[in-house]
């Protein structure tokens, strides 16, 4: 048989990693240690979301010392500070150089299919060029935040109102002059609302059910206290909510200007207009659910509850620390504004900060629940050789963060290596 009629033999890898963010590069770090032949497919550029999906004043909300990617811990002179966007990207660029992964950028994975004889087909596209390779094992390291959530009612907003998702927001100057409606009060929503508020913009904030926590308490960063209390080492199966904690909204707090609380009540005293959950839109008038007071109260209860747990720790360990305190509300809603006429309020822009949804439609394997979320135990699925990495609370609080993804990647590398020993690489003649 001559070369022109030879059957096509696709490239084969022991492991394919899908996603070139901190999770994918962490996985590559450990696969190199065990000598596993692998490739990392990234549809954009490696670590692109940190450069392209963060606003200009973005900074970490956890102290720099928690940045502990494999082989690349934070080595700066401000471990208890909070790196800004450019500093974060410098840190990540150093991590990329250190890992030196077999990375293929601009390659989108279109479909992953289990093979009858074992292993997987991985179909990719690079521009107009499509191709297929095979792999013994696959690690999905693309995270769980894929598709920006924007409600369908956005289609009925009055013409002329600029709409951006949180991933597109850059700074107050990027929005037209006038008042801004921010929808969602999680980490992104609260920080973007603060960014606009500090710039002197009139802000309306639709408040959700996000909890909050103190930045500093009894002389230390709350993160430092919680680390001493081993909270960040608690596995998901020991959390009171078990896997339900994966659905929780992150606590809002900020590292801006050296770190501080975010207190929506204080913002309200200063002129920010707070509303309840967005409920609907009718002829240019936004409608909100009642319950703003209850939402603020719940956030404060979590704030005080975390501090109370720190009080117990301090007492139990006999630690000398400044005296305890309890947050008392500085503002209470005087009734609730359940409607907002966008034109009359001078709203010129809406920033949607209600998160993302996962999109794993390209993964043709029965490993999802009814909501399209992966079913796994510490990243290991029931489908042999298929894993996830970098998901929120995959194993601990830090699983999707710089602080914990290394531990998860090391664990998966052990599982991958064990399967290599049991099942040597598949013969492509099979």
UniProtKB/TrEMBL annotation:
Pfam families: Pyr_redox_3. InterPro entries: Auxin_biosynth/cation_transpt, CHP04046_FMN-dependent, FAD/NAD-bd_sf. Keywords: Oxidoreductase. The keyword Oxidoreductase applies. GO terms for molecular function: flavin adenine dinucleotide binding; monooxygenase activity. It comes from the Bacteria. PANTHER family: FLAVIN-BINDING MONOOXYGENASE-LIKE PROTEIN (AFU_ORTHOLOGUE AFUA_4G09220) (PTHR43539), FLAVIN-CONTAINING MONOOXYGENASE (PTHR43539:SF78). This is MSMEG_0569 family flavin-dependent oxidoreductase. It comes from Aquabacterium soli. The lineage of its organism: Bacteria, Pseudomonadati, Pseudomonadota, Betaproteobacteria, Burkholderiales.
């Amino acid at each position: 048989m001559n070369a022109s009629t030879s059957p096509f033999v696709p490239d084969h890898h022991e492991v394919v990693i899908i996603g070139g963010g901190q999770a994918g590069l962490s996985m590559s770090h450990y696969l190199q240690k065990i000598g596993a032949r692998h490739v990392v497919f990234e549809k954009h550029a490696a670590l692109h979301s940190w450069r392209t999906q963060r606003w200009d004043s973005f900074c970490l909300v956890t102290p720099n010392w928690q940045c502990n990617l494999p082989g690349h811990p934070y080595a700066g002179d401000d471990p208890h500070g909070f790196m800004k966007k450019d500093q974060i990207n410098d840190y990540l660029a150093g991590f990329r150089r250190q890992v030196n992964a077999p990375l293929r950028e601009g390659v989108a994975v279109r479909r992953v299919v289990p093979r009858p004889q074992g292993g997987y087909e991985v179909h990719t596209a690079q521009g107009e060029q499509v191709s297929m390779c095979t792999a013994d094992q696959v690690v999905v390291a693309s995270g769980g935040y894929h598709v920006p959530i924007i409600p369908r009612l956005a289609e009925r907003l009055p013409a002329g109102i600029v709409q951006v998702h949180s991933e597109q927001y850059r700074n107050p100057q990027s929005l037209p002059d006038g008042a801004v409606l921010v929808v969602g009060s999680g980490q992104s929503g609260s920080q973007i609302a603060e960014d606009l508020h500090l710039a002197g913009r009139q802000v309306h904030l639709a408040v959700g059910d996000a909890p909050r926590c103190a930045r500093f308490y009894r002389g230390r960063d709350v993160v430092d206290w919680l680390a001493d209390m081993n909270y960040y080492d608690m596995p998901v199966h020991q959390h009171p909510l078990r896997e339900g904690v994966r659905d929780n909204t992150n606590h809002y707090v900020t590292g801006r200007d050296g770190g501080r609380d975010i207190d929506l009540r204080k913002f309200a005293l200063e002129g920010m207009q707070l509303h309840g959950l967005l409920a609907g839109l009718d002829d240019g008038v936004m409608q909100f659910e009642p319950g703003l007071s209850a939402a603020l109260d719940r956030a404060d209860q979590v704030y005080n509850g975390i501090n109370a747990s720190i009080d117990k720790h301090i007492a139990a360990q006999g630690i000398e620390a400044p005296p305890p305190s309890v947050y008392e509300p500085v503002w209470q809603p005087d009734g609730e504004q359940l409607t907002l006429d966008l034109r009359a309020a001078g709203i010129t822009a809406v920033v949607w900060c209600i998160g993302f949804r996962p999109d794993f439609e390209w993964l043709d394997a029965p490993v999802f629940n009814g909501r399209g979320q992966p079913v796994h135990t510490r990243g290991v699925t029931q489908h042999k050789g298929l894993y996830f990495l970098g998901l929120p609370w995959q194993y601990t609080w830090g699983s999707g963060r710089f602080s914990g993804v290394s531990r998860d990647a090391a664990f998966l590398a052990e599982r991958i290596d064990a399967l290599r020993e049991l099942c040597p690489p598949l013969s492509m003649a099979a």
